[in-house]
Amino acid sequence: MPAQKIEHPDSIIPRKAGVAPGEGPEKGLITLPGETSREAEDLAGGTYLTTKLDTMVNWARGNSLWPLPFGTACCAIEFMSMVSSHYDVARFGAEVVRFSPRQADLMIVAGTIVDKMGPVLKKIYDQMPEPKYVLAMGACATSGGFYRVYHVMQGIDEVIPVDIWVPGCPPTPDGLMYGILKLKDKIERGEIKRG
Amino acid sequence: MSTLTKFSAIPYTGPAPTNREPYVPANVAQTDARGEEIAAKISNNALQQERGQDMPSFSVDRNAIVDVLTSLRNSGFTIPLDLFGVDYPRRSGGRFDVVYQLYSPQANERVRLKVRVAEDESIPSSVGVFKGYDWYERETFDMFGVKFEGHPNLRRILCHEMFQGHALRKDYDPAQRWLLTEQGVAKLLPKIDPKFENVDTDFERVTLNLGPSHPATHGTLRIVVTLDGETIIGADTEIGYLHRCFEKMAETHTYQQVIPFTDRLNYCSAIINNVGYCMTIEKMLGIEAPARAQHIRLMLSEFMRISDHIICIGTNLVDMGALTNFWYLFQPREEILGLVESCCGARLLPTYTRVGGMAVDAPADFLANSQRLVNMLPKFIDDVEKLIMKNRIFLDRVIGVCPISQEDALSYGFTGPCLRATGVPYDVRKASPYLGYETYDWDVPIADGGDTYARFLVRLEEMRQSLRILQQAIDRGLPPGPVIVDNPYVALPPKERVYNEMESLIYHFKLIMHGIQPPVGEAYFQVEGGNGELGFYVVSDGTKNPYRVRVRPPCFPIFEAYPQMITGQTIPDAIAGLGSLNIIAGELDH
Q1: Cα separation of the two ends of chain B
Q2: pLDDT of B478
Q3: What is the ipTM for the molecules in this complex?
Q4: Which residue from A13, B14, B481, B547 puts its CA 20 to 30 A from B559's CA?
Q5: Which CATH superfamily groups domain B246-485+518-552?
Q6: How many Cβ pairs closer than 8 A exist between chain A and B?
Q7: What kind of fold does domain A65-188 have according to CATH?
Q8: What are phi and psi of B142, to 5 degrees?
Q9: B contacts of A115 (beta carbons < 8 Å)
Q10: What residues in A contact B219, CB-CB < 8 Å?
């Protein structure tokens, strides 16, 4: 079958950055419920779509984050709440919790990092393969929180780069999910380039 | 809001603040008389009774401490509860007080010993008397620089290896940090158990490091094991990876400001920590929270205990591959957290109590929601029990795994479910009831064997007993009245009055600026935490900041015994055993 031209060229551009789900028409690679499955039919019918490889790869990365929970304290308990049945982060594709840094691409630093833990955190970060993202969960990982004291690191950005900070002490599971969604947006916009 | 009627228009006419006056404990004559009896029994010249304390208290000459501890142990004081230091830099005749606290389960009483020691002096180590004092002495060395002669391994325990100075000394700057580089990380080499030293096998010995970031270590614990084939023949542990300096922070904050820090000790059952700390300060102030506040405290404590055990059982089963229970049990746990949220707005770390009562009143549907939870929870507990207790794989993995004998458990200073799993029916709620636990009908579950299976049984049954208490508490209903004491030297006046009345404004200002000022002295108070006896020892010098706050973390001695418990076991057994101990790093490392 000869290739057909798609009527609305805009519609094959992947979801625009910064558009939250539900705000305005999201057209692109994903067929949303209620939307006509035009693109899908086109694909099935042997049509083509054009996009940048980077955009597509970033879209895939953003939707399949594999978190490594670097849980040390209270925040880790809220992280557990987020992955367990009630909140269920699987809805956003980030439920494949890997405890090995070799298999993960998102490090969630959940809890206070003390000076004694600093070298360990750095080492584990170094062991993660590229591309890798870091989410600092809670006040302690962000800035030391209210522990301004002799054995507590004043924010993990002293030793590793951070992509997203989530406030709260501890953040609620909803807050953490929001952080993960923001990170996803950031990745899809292609703002994180490293390696 | 009920707080509107809390303050009458007439200014408060109760006792004036007790600033700089000495603290007088309740029943002081009785305590002193009991102290005399104990002193007569021990009959050691080095023992001098200190009167006017909240428990029989003695000062001991440092060279005689081992003898005194031995005779106390032989006369029934078998649980070493605590050992810590207090620094008085300007005092002549020895700068540090090293405080030993013991408990006798038979006589249900406590005793406190104080040893005065100067900076250049050392104390004979009492590791030979109580196994549990090994880590406590290391901690006192780490924090104060007090040396213990004859200690087998006197090195830092909480602070890292490149740390300089001793952090809890009064002249140590609280914010002074020291950098740890990778070269400075401790190299642990476990000692091989004498039992296995001469065993001849075909296997090469391997030393394996687990943690501090390891999926099965539940937080930040580091375990180093030496393996002979699959058998662990020697193990060592390292803690301090979550040392958040609770005790130093407490000294730099006012009494009210310490409450959020207590939440973060055992973050799985935060309200119990709040209650323990606030009741210690209330004990020093000689006040009691109103009946309504006590009732809310009791109910939420029991809900928190259930939630604590849910996390312990759920994650322990995850370690053994039984993921279902974790997903399943977290549902009621979310409901419990929802109940806490409805009371004060926060889920996990609520900081709900205040000195003298609660921050706000419970919502109108509190009892109805509690009843719904109490109706719902038994099904979850029964289902989990059915899922695991007839499961051959589970039983094979827990029966006889990581056992500890009753004698060892006592010598290490175990409390809580882990001690009750060895057959000692010690529960603070029964032994020295608070919040009116004595008026409820419930039992202390115990089990035999001290293995992982026994700990499972005790935790499951404890959840049911907590539900029994809760049902009775719901049936009694919340007592009417305010939730915080009517004392402007302790509790803030309601905002509506602060904006409209001069007196309330002044009280508010005074309390914010000058804080609560308990009388000069020291007090210890204990509650039953999720893992055992959670005690707070507070020294007040009459100012707005505590002079010293010591927390007695129940996890600390339990994890101390862990290397002994896993020696002779395999790695998977060690993991199953660790989960059943419910080590909470925040509490362990304070």
Answers
A1: 37
A2: 92
A3: 0.84
A4: B547
A5: Cytochrome-c3 Hydrogenase, chain B (1.10.645.10)
A6: 125
A7: Rossmann fold (3.40.50)
A8: -60, -45
A9: 160, 163, 177-180
A10: 71-73, 76
